[in-house]
Amino acid sequence: MFGSRKRPKPDGENLPERASGPPVGARFGPYEILESIGSGGMGQVYRARDSRFSRDVAIKFLRESLQNDPTPARRFQEEARLLAQINHPNILNVFDTGEYLGVPYLVTELLDGAPLDEILASGALPLRKLLDYAVQAARALAAAHRNGIVHRDLKPSNIFVLREGRVKVLDFGLAKRPPRAAANGSSEATETQLTEANTIVGTVSYMSPEQVSRQPLDSRSDLFSFGIVLFEMATARRPFTGASTVDVMHAVLHTDPPSVDPAPLDRIIRRCLEKNPAQRFQDADDLAFALEQIAVPDQVPAGPQPAPVSAPWIRRSAVAALAVVLLAAGALGWRLMSRQPASVTVLPLTFRRGLVQNARFTTDSSSILYSAEWEGGPSEIFSARPGHSESQELGMRREKLLDISRSGELLVLFDYSMSGWQPVNGKLGRVPLGGSAPRPLLDGVSYACWAHAGDRYAMVRQSGGRERVEFPAGTKLYETSGWISDLRLSPNDDALAFGEHPNLGDDQGHIVVISARGNVLARTADYASAQGVAWEPSGREVWYTAGIAELRLFAIQRNGRVRTVLETPGSLMLFDIGSDGRALMAHQSFRGSMILAARDGQERDLSWLDDSSIADISADGRTLLFWEGAAGSGPESNYSTYIRGVDGSPAIRLGDGQPIAFSVDAKWALSLVRRPRLRLLAVPTGTGETRELKIPAFESIEPIGGVFRDGRRVLVAARFPGRGVQYFVVDSQSGAARAITPEGIGVTGWSMPLSPDESYAAAHDATGSIVRYAVDAGSQPRSIPGTTATDQVIQWAADGRSIFVYSASIPVSVVKVDIESGRRKPWKTIGPTDRAGLFSIAPVRITPDERTYSYAFSRALSQLYLIAGLR
Fold first, then answer.
1. Angstrom distance (rounded) from CA 360 to CA 674
2. Residues sharing a CB contact under 8 Å with residue 695, sequence separation 6 or more, in sequence order
3. Alpha carbon of 700 to those of 49, 253, 656, 675, 779: distances in Å?
4. Does this model's pTM top 0.70?
C-alpha cells in the first residue's frame, strides 16, 4: 500500500527498518519532501509537494534493504511501467519516476482514506458498501486484464477506499503479463509476502489453486483472489485458513468456502472460487455486471412490498449466463413497484454473451423470435420457446428482426450500418418464417412494423437529411430532423407510437403517440435515454422503457397520462407484449470506452467513467478532449466535457456540455450545452473563464465541426425549426452565420473537418456521397471520387491532398483517399479484440503526423427475459 495519507499502524508493524528516502525538507527536481506517511512491502512512502502543478503527491522509495537485490528493484520498476499503462479511475495514477541519490522512486497521486483491511478490522461491510466497493475493484481488474496484466497479489490491503467512496487498486509490484508461469519454490508463513526469487509469488491466504500449485496464471487467477476478498468483505473472515502455510494451501486446493448471505452474493463468490479456472467467471467485466444486479434490501420503497420475483434456476457453463440467471433468480429479488401482484414471474430466454437487438412473439404467443449478435458475430435470427434453454437458429444471418405478421411473415433489416444507436442506410425486406433470403422492398429504412389487418406495414425512412414515419408506405404522417426508433402500430391500426430523438449521436428523447392520420395524441417528457416501445393488448396504453442511467418501464395513455409499471436495478429494454399480457424485455449493461494508440504500438484504454467518447486529440498528440455521456455526465446537459493527458494522468472536468473540438492551439475547447437552453461555449483547457459564443436561433446543433485558426469562426452542423440539417460558418462574436451547404444534407458521420488551408469542408450530401464544400463563396461543391455512401469522414491529411474515411463496421478499416484521383490506400484496421456486444466504433481521431490515433467504442451486453404478471 502506498500513495496514502494513512499513518503507519501504532504497533509499528509497517515501519521500515531504516529510512530509505530523503529527509523531510529535502528538495529534488520539482519535489519537496513534507513528511513520511507509511511503508509498503517494498518501499517507504512520503508526502511531497510538486511545485510544477501546485499539488501534493506521494513518492515511494525502494526500501534500503532491497536496493542491492535485483529482483525487488526490477519489480519496483515494473510496477511503475505497468501502472502507467493501465490508466483507470480505480487504479492508482502514476505521475513520474526517477532516482534520488541512486535510490529509485515512484511518484503517484496522494490518496486520502484507508486500505480495505483496516476497514474490515471493524467487521463485515453492509451489503450496499460491499457491492459499491466490489464493483469498482472489479472494473479496475477488468482494465488491467484488458492490458494483458495479471495482478497476482489481490488482497484487502491492496484495495484502498478514499474518503468520498472511490476505490483504488494498488500494488502492482507482483503483476505480470501472462502466459508466463509463476516461479517455482516453497513458502514460509501464512501471512508472509513471498517475493524472493525461486518462490511462489503472492500472499498465501489469497492465492488461487494454480498459484499454489505453481501452474501458469491468467486473469482468472485474479478472479479467484477477488472471490476471497468478497468473502472477507461479507464475513470479516477468510474462507481458507489453517495452522500453517501448508494447511492454508491444502484448503485453497481442496476445501469449499462456507456459505454467506445473501444468496445471490454467495453464488457469485462460489463461482469466483471454483477450483477449475474454466468454471469461474471468465471476465472481470462480467463479474462486475453480476454484482451490479444484486438488489439491496434497504433500497425498496416504503410501503407494503410484493413477493419476490421467482424464476427457475438454469445452470449454464457460460459466464454471461451466470450473470443474467442470477438476475432472474428469486433470491436476487428484483424490486417491483408495490402495485405489482405477487404472481409476477421472470423467465430467462437467452444465456450467451452479446447483444439482443429485437424480439417478437409469434401470433399465438407460444414462441418467440429474436435477433441477436452473440460473441461478436453478425446479427442472426433465432427462435425460442419458454421452458426450453436452447434457441434454434433460423438460418437468417446478417439480418435484424423488425416484426412478424399474423400470417408468420417477417420484416427484416439488412445491409445496414450503425451510427451510434441509429441504423442507417438499411434495406427493408420481407421473408416467410422458415424462408431463406429476404425479398428487398425499400432502401433507406431504419424501422418497420406490420399492420394487424391487411398486407400493409408502417416504416421509418430517411429522406433529405430527415426521418419520416410512413403508413402505409409512401404516406408521410410525421417527420423530424432527428431520428426515430421503435415504431409500433396499435392493435386496431388506428394509432402509432415511436421514440423521437433530437440528437443524432445518442438516444435522448421522448415517446410520441400519433393517430393514423398523423395527429399527435400524446408525447412524454424528455428522457436521457428512451428506447423500447410496445402497445399493451387493449390498445389503451403504450408501454416504453426510458430513464437516465437506468431504464424503467413506463406506460402512457392516449390522453398523455404516464405511470410507472416496473422498476428494477439496472437498465431494461422493452421489445414486445403478447396477446396474453406477457412482456419480452432485455436487461442490459452499457459502456462507452476510449482507446489511444501509436499507429505501430499497443492500444491503451484511457476511459474515465462509464461512457467515455473521444471528441478531439491535440495536434501534438498529448491531450484528449472527450465527454462522459451516461451516469457520469452532467445533470442538465447529460454530458460532461473533460480533457486527459495521453500519459494517463487523471482526467480534468471542464464543465457541462458535449465537446466538439479543440482550438488550433488547444488552449480552449468548443463545447455544446443543450439544456436548459442551447448554448455554444468556449471552455478554457487551462486558466481562464468560459465564454458563451453568439449563435443564431438554431433548433439544435450536432457535435460535428471545428474551430478556425482565427479563433473567432466556428463550423457547426445546425438545424432551424422545420428545416433539415445544414452546415454554417458562424462568427462567434457577432452571431452572424453563413451557410456553406444546402438544407437537408445527411449527417451520418462524426465530423465535418476543415482542410488544412481552411478552404474546404468535407461532409455527406443528401444522397450520401462525400462532398467537399467551399468555405468561401465562388466554388461549387465537388464529390470526392473513391468514396462511398458507407464511408464516414474522419479528417483531412496534413498535406490537404487526401482525406481519412472509415466504414461503420466492426472492426473499422481506416482508409486514406486521394481527393483528386480517388485512389484508396488502407491506413489501419482498428477495434477491440473482444467484439461481444459491440455496436459502434466511432468517432476516430488521428494526429496530423499520423503517429497517434484514438477512437471510441460502445458495448451493450443484454439478455432476454419473458415477464408475466405485469399490470
1. 35
2. 678, 680, 701, 716, 718, 730, 732, 735, 737
3. 46, 61, 17, 11, 27
4. no
Counting other chains too, the contacts that 767-771 makes at CB distance below 8 Å and 24 or more residues apart are 768/425, 770/803, 770/805
- Strands (DSSP E) along 599-675, which ranges? 604-605, 612-617, 623-628, 640-645, 652-656, 658-662, 668-673
CA-CA distance, 869 to 580, in Å (whole number)? 10
Q: How far is CA 781 from CA 686, 725, 786, 803, in A?
A: 38, 17, 16, 16
Identify the three-state secondary structure at position 830. Answer: strand
For residue 220, give the H/E element and its range.
helix 219-235
* CA–CA distance, 259 with 23 (Å, rounded to integer): 50
ω before 341 within 30° of 0 (cis)? no
Distance CA 483, CA 477 (A): 14
pLDDT in tens, 444-493: 899 999 999 888 999 999 876 678 999 998 899 999 878 899 999 999 99
Residue 16 confidence (pLDDT): 34
What is the distance between the alpha carbons of residues 377 and 449, in angstroms, rounded to a whole number? 25
Question: What domains, with CATH codes, occur in the chain?
Answer: 27-109 (3.30.200.20), 113-299 (1.10.510.10), 352-581 (2.130.10.150)
Q: What 3 state SS string does 133-163 have?
A: HHHHHHHHHHHHHHCCCECCCCCHHHEEEEC
Residue 438 forms beta bridges with which residues? none
End-to-end CA distance of the chain: 52
If you search the block for the grid coordinates 473540438, which residue do you land on?
A: 661
Residue 700 DSSP SS3: strand
